[in-house]
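Lecture 7 notes. Example A: sequence first, then its structure tokens.
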Amino acid sequence: MQEFNIPTRDEVSTNNQEIFDNLKKMVGFVPNLYATYAYNDTALGDYLAFQNRKSTLSAKEKEVINLVVSQINDCHYCQSAHTAISKMNGFSDEQILDLRSGVAPWDEKLNALAAFVSNITLNRSHPDREVVDALFEAGYSKANLVDIIMVIGDKFVSNFLNGVTNIEIDFPVAPKLEKATV
């Protein structure tokens, strides 16, 4: 099987070196998954632009999506990264485990979001009508729906890249779920 090292700054294009420098300034390090995008001259910049696009969703709502999709796709790297990011956005350890299970019993709106994301992901883009209705009943708009699907797509790209490369996790490793409902 092909081995994937984590590209260093010296091994990537000039364009990606600049992005690495900016990531180090902003985040303090270049996450291994981002470095893996840098195998390609433009993919890292393209991905970051897509990931950081203006959205109608809050940072917490995006993390709900990231946690649910990464759990369903069994991406332990992204589970770990988004567990750390979710904590920075105010979620507790228990809430993060709930979200990874596809529920948010402490918040009706986030619960509808988690249920929708779980359902559409498990059903390969064909959600059950009742979870779509519940999403709108919880207060999400059609513009939010488009953004939700954009974040799901973003997470699929990262989950798939990690699934192929199986690069080393450079975040605190997220605990395995004892009982996943997704």
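Example B, a different protein, same format:
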Amino acid sequence: MRFSLKKSPSRFSILPEIIAILLAFFIGALILLFSGYSPLVAFSALFRGAFGSRNAWGQTLTQATPILFTALAFLLTFRAGIFNIGVEGQFLMGAMASALAGAYFSGLPAPLHITLSLLLGGAMGALWGLIPALLKVYLGAHEVITTMMMSYIASYLTSYLVNYPFKAPGWVAQTEPVAKTALLPKILPPTQLSLSFIISLFLALLVSFFLFHTYLGFQIRAVGLNPEVAENRGIAIKNRQILAFLLSGLIAGIGGGGEILGVHGRFVDGFSPGYGWDGIAVSLVGKLHPGGCVLASILFGMLRAGGMTMTRVTKVPLDLSLIIQALVIILVSAPYFIRAVILRRRDF
């Protein structure tokens, strides 16, 4: 006998999130005012830098793309009741794999070279996610600790690889450039916005369909909501948790590959300012829904791209946009963190 699980509501309200965002901007305006800057001038420059021109839109969406990948990756595991904070490591390992495939595979037609490089990035991300998955389901190791440690390992490992075995000649710690056949096409030239953005949107649709319109997705959500009941109804909890980890790492790895093949053209040490960590926040701001993640990632992309213009035009420190991001995260995401801690405190 199968048990029922309430479907995701067809109209999921974003009013609380909108209020939280407006409140974050209001607090930011007060900080600006007390710091001697004009909030109107600063925010005008911010929005103009994010949406005021074709180039601005391109920069905003370019900044939003890797965050959307990592947000979807975190969402998948969270829906299975897993707090995977190792998305950054999976993103970096996927980026390295795609960079090496793009640089060292030769003689391939562009569609095949791009596809192969992205898939290898996704496979490496999935492999990096498989390790904490096995540690959790078979040894009982808590995923918060193991995924965090795996992120640090990935950061140091990719840094070693790009500084020593795969370092290109020169002072900068970077790999050889990827072949032209591996570069993702630009979709809004002369900006850096590439096909990676379209891939991220496609994956958002795919994740939404998988979670809310397939029985396998239903099982993953059931495990996340109540693992005991799910197990009693015949759902293989361990298998579903491993699957969620693998899919999460796959998406993060593809995102890392897309950033290399679409923006940087090679792996550069420290190229990620923390896309995996931002993805966790964006996923929570987006109410753990793929559609919400798309909107939240664009918001964060706006703050990053617009913040640079705001600093250049008004001399307001770029840190203000980071303060607004932090306020949005705190005001919107705090209830999710509190609920997660309360529901999972027995695991510690």
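Note on Example B: The two ends are 33 Å apart (CA to CA). Residues 6-11 have pLDDT under 50 and may be disordered.
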